[in-house]
Design a protein that fits this description.
The chain is of the alpha/beta class and about 280 residues long. The protein is built from 12 helices and 5 strands. About 25% of the residues are buried.
């Protein structure tokens, strides 16, 4: 009769696989993934049980922090944006740089204060907002970034239960960023939806809003809305208002690109005239 025997190497390999599975089941995924290497290093370097546990704890904490950051970034939906280092502070005719730098410290979030960036199109309001939002995500805060059309379209659903869940979703994060308020006009029902979001966050969570309209013109954004005065009152009760004045960055970049394309053509023309 033939009998099969298990070698020590096979036994060790099988035991390691079983242990890795158990570690995965209890959530120690990094330890499970690097178990063989971890055991080899612990054996070679003669780690004490205390050092081994410290190594496991450190790697799991680092992995948990990484996954939490990735989850918060997905949740925020910031998309691509230029870093604050690329912002040209000398281009706007008027901008309160100290206010933005203070906002980047996130001191307004624990106080549930709001920040409103007011200015014409193309002056970097969205870029600044996304940089503040990104800093908040890195600091461990939950953030949601949406354009005003996206937010209002999301809330305009037929199911009352679903709408309540969506209101709860926008009330929950530490920082809610609403971009491009004032670029489109809405009916009074949209104003009611925005008011409900602001009301639920009033003195509970911070809001950043970018807009190209001064508040006295918000009646043209939400015409015939009875709640607009109360909405603005709640929004501006605890607020820092940043006014940015100047010419559009995008217009400036377009002019620079046009000038750059024109130079080779002019040089070629001058060269042909000489010949």
């Amino acid at each position: 009769m033939n009998s099969q025997t298990t070698t020590p190497t096979q036994l060790t390999s099988q035991t390691t696989i079983e242990l890795a599975t158990q570690l995965t089941n209890i959530g120690l995924r990094v330890t499970a993934a690097s178990l063989s290497d971890l055991i080899a290093r612990a054996t070679t370097q003669r780690w004490s049980p205390h050092i081994l546990l410290e190594q496991i704890a450190a790697s799991e904490v680092a992995d948990k922090s990484r996954r939490s950051l990735e989850r918060r970034l997905r949740h925020a939906r910031l998309g691509r944006f230029k870093p604050i280092a690329d912002f040209d502070w000398l281009w706007p005719r008027k901008i309160d740089r100290p206010m933005i730098e203070r906002a980047l410290t996130l001191d307004f979030i624990p106080e549930a204060r709001n920040l409103i960036l007011l200015g014409a199109n193309g002056l970097g309001k969205t870029m600044l907002t996304k940089n503040i939002a990104y800093a908040a995500v890195l600091a461990g805060h939950t953030v949601v970034f949406r354009t005003a059309p996206e937010l209002l379209a999301d809330l305009q659903c037929d199911s009352p239960a679903l709408r309540r869940r969506k209101f709860a979703f926008y009330a929950r994060p530490a920082l809610l960023c609403i971009d491009e308020v004032g670029y489109l006009s809405y009916d009074s029902s949209a104003a009611d939806l925005l008011f409900e979001v602001i009301n639920r966050r009033y003195e509970r969570g911070s809001i950043i809003i970018t807009t190209n309209r001064v508040f006295k013109d918000w009646n043209t954004v939400f015409p015939n809305a009875a709640c607009i005065a109360t909405l603005i009152d709640r929004l501006t009760h605890h607020v820092d208002l940043l006014l940015i004045e100047g010419q559009s960055y995008r217009l400036r970049e377009s002019e620079l690109e046009t000038a750059a394309r024109r130079q080779p053509a002019q040089a070629k023309k001058a060269s042909s005239q000489k010949n």
